[in-house]
Design goal:
Helices cover 79% and strands 0% of the residues. By secondary structure, it is mostly helical.
Length: 227
């Protein structure tokens, strides 16, 4: 019983270091951040950090890995509990939106993870990014397969479609950041779904939802410019 309590305490401290480091890395960037900066922010000794992470890069990676583990767990749970394919689509969309919005203050760090994965010799970063993309692609493939199988979608090569959708999602996130987060991510994602839906929906399905999707498209998602 005592050992279990100690294990939990150690895990809590590890997560505290990760979350604190994320704030510091987001503020200064990976290369300019010193372990002493993280130590100062966390108000713990630098030696304590090294008990959990042997290098700055290992700590940097652990932030992304921790975030993605949480994201994947939440997405899988909501996907499994959703009653149909449309609900599963919305569950995945909303999970990703919530993740981006909850990490808005640390958004530059997400972009730095992507950039770091392409320039470091440590393959852990690129492999982890590919792993999370594969996770969502597999779920997307499952949804697309069923929507095509039951006649809601016209035939489409699933892998190409879900990879493209993933890229568009990343692009929306980047646009959101560059625009100062001045539009609703949910509206932007719904706009994307409407564009794709009108292109892929079979005739019968299109008839049912056409007016709703056209309404979303005509409204757009960018803030109205004042006269």
């Amino acid at each position: 019983m005592v050992q279990k309590s100690l294990t939990k305490t150690k895990q809590d401290k590890r997560i505290f270091i990760i979350e604190t480091a994320a704030k510091v890395f987001a503020k200064y960037g990976f290369h300019k951040t010193l372990m002493q900066d993280i130590s100062n922010e966390a108000q713990i000794g630098k030696g304590t950090i090294y008990e959990y992470f042997t290098t700055k890069e290992e700590l940097f990676f652990s932030i992304y890995d921790h975030w993605m583990n949480d994201l994947e767990a939440i997405a899988q749970k909501r996907f499994d509990e959703a009653p149909d394919q449309i609900a599963k689509t919305e569950a995945l969309r909303d999970t990703i939106i919530e993740f981006y919005e909850s990490r808005a203050n640390e958004a530059p760090l997400i972009l730095e993870f992507w950039a770091h994965s392409l320039r470091t010799e440590e393959q852990l970063f690129l492999n982890r990014i590919r792993k999370v993309r594969r996770f969502f692609t597999n779920l997307g493939n499952s949804i697309t397969n069923d929507l095509t199988k039951y006649g809601y979608f016209i035939p489409v090569e699933e892998e190409s479609f879900t990879e493209l959708e993933s890229g568009i999602s990343d692009g929306i996130f980047l646009l959101w950041l560059l625009n100062g987060q001045n539009f609703s991510l949910k509206k932007a994602f719904q706009f994307r779904q409407s564009v794709i839906g009108l292109g892929l929906l079979a005739d019968d399905a299109r008839t049912v939802v056409k007016s709703k999707l056209e309404g979303i498209l005509s409204e757009g998602f960018l803030p109205t410019k004042e006269a």
